[in-house]
Design goal:
By secondary structure, this protein is mainly β. It is about 5% helix and about 35% strand. The protein has a single domain, classed as 3 Solenoid (UDP N-Acetylglucosamine Acyltransferase, domain 1), CATH 2.160.10. The protein contains 1 helix and 17 strands. A 6-stranded mixed β-sheet has the order 3-6-11-14-16-17, with no helix packed on it.
Length: about 140
C-alpha cells in the first residue's frame, strides 16, 4: 500500500471522521484528505499531487443569539461522508468538495477540476465546476 497523503481534521474536538483504505491506494506528494467526515477509498485509486478532498463546510452564523451559541458549540461546521470506489483517478490539484458524497468506479477527475456533486461510474469530469466530458470504456 503506497500512501503519503496528509490527513487533516479542522475541528478535531467537534467532528471526527474515519479514513478507511480498502486495498492499494496511491497518493502523490501533498495530496490532502480532510477527515471531518468518514472517507472510504477503495482499491486502485490514485490521488494526484496536490489534490484536495474536503468533507466539511463552515456555515454562516445564525442571527438568533440562542441558536448562535449552539452553533459555536458544534464548531460551526457540518461534515459529510465520501466514498471513492475502485480504480478512480483524481488528477493533480483536483478538489473534491463536501457536496460530493460518491465518486463511482473507474471515474477520472481532471487536473485542477473542482467536483461539486456525485460522479457516476466510468465518467470523465473536468473543469470548475467539474462537468462530464466523456466516458471510459
Amino acid at each position: 500500500m503506497a500512501f503519503e497523503a496528509k490527513t487533516y481534521i479542522p475541528h478535531a474536538s467537534v467532528v471526527k471522521g474515519i479514513l478507511a483504505l480498502d486495498g492499494d491506494v496511491y497518493a502523490a506528494t501533498n495530496a490532502m484528505i480532510d477527515i471531518s467526515g468518514n472517507v472510504t477509498i477503495r482499491e486502485g485509486t490514485v490521488l494526484g499531487g496536490g489534490s484536495r478532498i474536503y468533507t466539511h463546510i463552515h456555515k454562516i452564523p445564525p442571527k438568533d443569539i440562542r441558536i448562535r451559541i449552539a452553533w459555536k458549540e458544534r464548531g460551526g461546521i457540518t461534515a459529510s461522508d465520501l466514498i471513492i470506489e475502485e480504480d478512480v483517478w483524481i488528477a493533480d490539484f483536483a478538489m473534491i468538495l463536501p457536496s460530493c458524497n460518491k465518486i463511482g468506479r473507474g471515474a477520472v477527475i481532471g487536473a485542477r477540476s473542482v467536483v461539486t456533486k456525485d460522479i457516476p461510474p466510468y465518467e470523465i469530469w473536468v473543469g470548475n465546476p467539474a462537468r462530464k466530458v466523456g466516458e471510459r470504456k
